[in-house]
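Before drawing any conclusions, I looked closely at one protein, both as residues and as discrete backbone shape codes, quoted below without any editing:
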Amino acid sequence: MPVPNASRRGFSAPRLPPRSADFLPDFGAGFTRAAEAPPRVPNRIGLASYSLWQFQHDDLRDLEKNIDLAAEWGFAGVEILHHQLQREDNGYFQKLKQRAALHGLDLYGMASHQTFLTPDENKRRQQIELTMLYLEQCYQLGIPTMRCRPAPGAPAKTSTT
């Protein structure tokens, strides 16, 4: 007797045995499966204010201008070089935070140029105290990270003679 709606190809196709997972409870209920995972956020790239100023471009020393340029160029945030701060009072810090927020930028880091590499215990102590002050300023600015420069002093000027 012929099988209704059967074809030779369908009839001869291999039949797979049932998977054991078909009979087990779903222990992963509530977890997001890879196919349902939200899209990944692209890597957010920030701009270090030092990259603009570099101790030589006086027209780019102003941090507010650096924040504006970072936003204009599509960066996600700004790392502030402590040496570029014009003042160290709460009003100025709030002004910088507001400017970054209005542009949708993070103030993600502060760079400092102190060093701990000295045999002089008093100089090391001074640098540690500076670091503590800078960390407090990071807190006031809402900055989560601070980068210390381990080598002594500001970048050395190269001689062309």
The longest strand covers residues 106-112. Residues 61-148 form one domain. The radius of gyration is 29 Å. Residues 32 and 38 are 9 Å apart (CA to CA).
